[in-house]
Amino acid sequence: VTVLLVQPLALDEVLAALASGARPVAGGTDLVVGARQGKRPLPDRLVAIHRVDDLRGIRPGAVALDLGALATHAEISVHPTVLARYTALADAAAIVGSHATRAHGTIGGNVMNASPAMETGGPLVCLCADAVLASTTGTRSVAVEELLTGPGTTAARDDELLIAVRLPVRPPSGTGSAYVRLEYRRQMEIAVVGVTAAVTVTDGVVSAARIAVTALAPTIRRVLAAEVALIGTRGDETAIAAASAAVQAAVTPISDVRASAAYRTEMAKVFTRRAVATALRRAAGEAVAVPASSSTMGAA
Ligand SMILES: Cc1cc2nc3c(=O)[nH]c(=O)nc-3n(C[C@H](O)[C@H](O)[C@H](O)COP(=O)(O)OP(=O)(O)OC[C@H]3O[C@@H](n4cnc5c(N)ncnc54)[C@H](O)[C@@H]3O)c2cc1C
Q1: What is the residue-averaged pLDDT of the chain?
Q2: Which residues does ligand 1 sit against, CB inside 6 Å?
Q3: How far apart are CA 257 and CA 238, in angstroms?
Q4: Full-prediction pTM beyond 0.85?
């Protein structure tokens, strides 16, 4: 099979290629590696987007932080604004694959690949991120929560390119977030169970909370019952236990070679406890090191 690859410098040329049926490739760590492993054949027409400068960079602004679609996990995991205000996203980006995966893998590729086990999805959903999609006919924003529609599927059309992920500005004080995942071996694994929590604490009371599960449903999902269990409480042990129980009751994991559904369900409770407790500690101003998966290892 011959694969036709174009590598334009201008965004317009990428969009024109997509409109005529080509598929985008960014870092290639999903698309190309997947094809080599025989998971999925390469599309016969590819447009490489890695030379388009407009898609690069992490841009803090007055109302939002824009992550260019080509921002790599390595760049995101050390960015000072991400570390300070969107800590769950740093937790996630810091544990994607290996050093090489993080250096080449992009946020755009991670989101658009839409794996139910993808690392950045839970943090982006809990931090209220939007996906900015462009095509030859215009640009629109879709909440990441609505973009992810199922395993490997998104609400984006084939002719749309994700150009940026936009995170609304969060105040530095009173907010905290964390993403933790269960892993057997560091580096080459995707999540078997992952939980994200983002909280706002006002005068000692949890005034807002978003909790999402990874690899525990056909796609990244918020668990509203767990959020409700936390909001209005002081984030004490009882409230955290109630949120964890709500997650355990809500998840619908699969059994596969990596873990059984029953084990994943039990671990969902444990990892919710860790994610929520860590988000609350960060909201209180405590510095819990990134990635939270390592720094909370062995925690109850
Ligand atoms: C060894 C290894 C370990 C890994 N470990 C993890 C892990 O721990 N956690 C995890 O979440 N992932 C992991 N991955 C998966 C992968 O590395 C990430 O999902 C990465 O972020 C994908 O980015 P990419 O730029 O390489 O995507 P690509 O492979 O270039 O693209 C992935 C998909 O997204 C589409 N796409 C890419 N960019 C855009 C865009 N801007 N707009 C529209 N569509 C687009 C492509 O057409 C393709 O369908 C691993 C992969 C490997 C090979």
Answers
A1: 93
A2: 23-31, 33, 49, 69, 96-98, 101, 104-106, 108-110, 112-113, 118-119, 161-162, 188-190
A3: 34
A4: yes
173 token code pair: 């004080």
Calculate Rg over the CA atoms of the chain.
19
Mean pLDDT, to the nearest integer, of 153-165? Answer: 98
Residue 97 Cα: closest atom of ligand 1: 5
Q: Choose one of 96, 142, 162 to mutate for the ligand 1 pocket test, by most ligand atoms within 8 angstroms of C-beta.
A: 96
The H or E element that residue 11 is part of is helix 11-19
For the chain, what percent of residues have pLDDT higher than 70?
96
Tens digit of pLDDT for each residue in 46-72? Answer: 999 999 999 999 999 999 999 999 999
Nearest to 159 by CA among 140, 177, 174: 140
**Alpha helical stretches, state H, 127-236:** 144-147, 224-230
The answer to whether the beta carbons of residues 93 and 125 sit under 8 Å apart is no
CA gap 87, 85 in Å, rounded = 6
Q: Which residues are 111's β-sheet partners?
A: none
Biggest alpha carbon–alpha carbon distance for the chain: 63
Work out the angle at residue 119's Cα, subtended by the Cα atoms of residues 116 and 122, and round it to the nearest 5 degrees. 75
Interatomic CA distance for residues 111 and 130, integer angstroms: 11
Written as six digits, the tokens of 194 are 């992952």
Sole residue written with tokens 């991120």: 129
**pLDDT above 60 for 240:** yes
Tokens representing residue 21 in the block: 């049926």
